[in-house]
Amino acid sequence: MEIFHVDAFTDRKFSGNPAGVCVLPRAATEQWMQDVAREVSHPETAFLVRDGAGFGLRWFTPTVEVELCGHATLASAHVLWEQGVVEPAEAIRFQTKSGVLKARRTGGWIELEFPALPAKQVKAPPGLEKAIGAKARYVGKSRFDYLCEVDSEETVRGLEPDPRLVAALPMRGVIVTAKSSTKGFDFVSRFFAPKVGIDEDPVTGTAHCVVAPFWGARLAKKEMTGYQASSRGGTVRVGLGGSKVLLGGKAVTVMRSELLGEG
């Protein structure tokens, strides 16, 4: 079997968020998929198996399975089209632990239909500001993560959080965001999730399911462009539509490796 190494939410190699993509001939055991994900050692590795008219899709970090992942879904769609498994004009349906997710190609971009994950404002839990190393002007709680708004793009870019303290918080991770001062972007963000083995995720689709409703309400916009300001960096276009968020991005295959033997 081949494992494709894809950089997602970018059109340049060695930027965006790397993902492993493995198209399976049949369903594999959970332990085998976790072992492969640990060996690949990308933030997430996606495993696909044909399921009727669509594909079953599961995502694993090097340490755990996750319920929802944007960049590895983008990478999976990219591989299916690039390898001719799916026709270029055909939309893709993924069956996942978070329900049906859809992908289609539009104007040179890949567009994913994901659930909106709006945050509800909460009191900052003890240790949150110390963990991220900044004062939060807003704290919210979404399905998986805390959302913190800080005062500026410069603050977001300069964060040096303490992974040990972030991992001690009672959620998967922490999204930190601010209104962008850079032309061409509406907001910037970073995402930290050491609890699931990712001190900082380079570009995070699920985080944009949280920040899109947040900034959409504040900026009175339904279509926006965000920049995730990790060291690799990546661009995510977002569109709001009721209970859904459209995530737009590009992807590029960096390498292929051959997995010897099966689980």
Write the layout of secondary structure elements.
Elements: E1 2-8, E2 17-24, H1 30-40, E3 44-51, E4 54-60, E5 65-66, H2 71-82, E6 92-96, E7 99-106, E8 109-115, E9 120-121, H3 128-132, E10 138-141, E11 145-149, H4 153-158, H5 163-168, E12 173-179, E13 187-193, E14 198-201, H6 205-219, E15 223-228, E16 234-241, E17 244-249, E18 251-258
Parallel strand pairs: 2-3, 4-6, 11-12, 13-15
Antiparallel strand pairs: 1-2, 1-18, 3-4, 4-5, 6-7, 7-8, 8-17, 9-10, 10-11, 12-13, 13-14, 15-16, 16-17
Q: How do you describe this structure in short?
A:
The protein has 263 residues and is of the alpha+beta class. It is 21% helix and 41% strand.
- Strand fraction band? 35-45%
- What overall form do the CA principal axes indicate? globular
Mean pLDDT: 97
Strand count, sense and barrel status of the largest sheet are: 18 strands, mixed
* Rg from alpha-carbon coordinates: 18 Å
CATH fold-level assignment of the largest domain: Diaminopimelate Epimerase, Chain A, domain 1
Integer count of domains: 2
Number of strands: 18
Instruction: Give the distance, in angstroms, between the N- and C-terminal Cα atoms.
Output: 11 Å
Please give the CATH architecture of the largest domain.
Answer: Roll
Task: List low-confidence stretches.
Answer: none
The helical percent reads: 10-25%
CATH superfamily of the largest domain: Diaminopimelate Epimerase, Chain A, domain 1
The SSE order reads EEHEEEHEEEEHEEHHEEEHEEEE
The CATH top-level class label of the largest domain: Alpha Beta
User: What structural class results from the helix and strand content?
Assistant: alpha+beta
